């Protein structure tokens, strides 16, 4: 039986990170799972609230559990950016392995108080579930933005991170360290890349000793990502890059054969495009040459 906590602790010992990829449909899930099996590395798939409402919590959990059991492979399911206790409880009861309880938009004291209560309630449902808290501002929306928000004031301070982790008892912390949800047009074209505040990551790790998650990893400089992992990032989220690959793959497939109407034939190119992205990211996160 695979346990996510064990997988993350083993990754930390090896100075690698577990890749987390959001799945909005079975096409992306199929591509992510196939990519992880090619490299034989564990993987986390995430579902935002909108994606869970589109597919269904229990359907998501059944698909991932089915893959894990059928193939005896470490794939895990995370309820990404959950903003209410009600929705977090639904995910826990459905069988999710982890929940991101994100109240980062609230003042720190309110975030601490409500996250602490959520940790207690979710562990009562499933003692093995991992609960992630978030502080700081990394923007919203895994999409293509016209311009980058000013996130300088929302960077996570190491002393606040320690206070948050100690007070809430979260299993994972998602800090704001120069990361940003979504991508800019120049990032999609590969002209510019995000960079991370590596020293801030190192300080937060020293202060908290917590397992750390990097959200908004799409479009980030490879060197910056490897440095971040070495300094203590344990999970890296990729979403927008997959959505772009899905869209480009679908457009290519339809252009190649405009008369095709069989869904699984049309969707093979999007799957291949997504796999290219996922394999490249998993190689980087796991330091595979």
From TrEMBL:
Identify the keywords attached in UniProt to this record, alphabetized. Answer: Calvin cycle
For the keyword Amino-acid biosynthesis, the answer is: no
Q: What pathway or pathways are given for this protein in its record?
A: Carbohydrate biosynthesis; Calvin cycle
Enumerate the InterPro entries for this protein. Answer: Aldolase_TIM, Class_II_FBP_aldolase, FBA_II
Q: This protein's superkingdom?
A: Bacteria
Q: Does the keyword Lyase apply?
A: no
Protein name (Swiss-Prot/TrEMBL):
Fructose-bisphosphate aldolase
Q: Which organism is it from?
A: Labrys miyagiensis
């Amino acid at each position: 039986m695979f346990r996510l906590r064990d997988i993350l602790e083993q990754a930390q010992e090896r100075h690698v990170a577990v890749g987390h990829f959001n799945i909005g449909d079975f096409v992306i899930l199929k591509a992510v799972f196939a990519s992880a099996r090619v490299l034989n590395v564990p993987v986390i798939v995430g579902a935002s609230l909108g994606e869970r409402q589109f597919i269904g919590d229990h359907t998501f959990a059944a698909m991932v559990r089915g893959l894990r059991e059928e193939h005896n492979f470490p794939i895990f399911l995370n309820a990404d950016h959950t903003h209410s206790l009600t929705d977090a409880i639904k995910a826990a009861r459905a069988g999710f392995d982890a929940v991101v309880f994100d109240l980062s938009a609230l003042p720190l004291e309110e975030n601490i108080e409500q996250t602490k209560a959520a940790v207690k309630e979710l562990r009562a449902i499933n003692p093995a579930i991992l609960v992630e808290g978030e502080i700081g501002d990394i923007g919203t929306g895994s999409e293509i933005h016209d311009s980058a928000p000013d996130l300088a004031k929302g960077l996570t301070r190491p002393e606040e991170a320690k206070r948050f982790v100690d007070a809430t008892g979260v299993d994972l912390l998602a800090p704001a360290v120069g990361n940003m949800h979504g991508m800019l047009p120049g990032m999609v074209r590969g002209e510019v890349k995000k960079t991370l505040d590596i020293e801030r990551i190192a300080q937060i790790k020293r202060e908290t000793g917590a397992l750390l998650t990097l959200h908004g990893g799409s479009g980030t400089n490879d060197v910056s990502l490897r440095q971040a992992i070495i300094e203590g990032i344990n999970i890296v989220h990729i979403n927008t890059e997959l959505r772009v690959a899905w869209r480009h793959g679908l457009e290519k497939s339809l252009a190649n054969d405009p008369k095709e109407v069989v869904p699984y034939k049309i969707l093979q190119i999007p799957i291949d495009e997504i796999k290219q992205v996922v394999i490249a990211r998993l190689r980087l996160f796991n330091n595979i040459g």
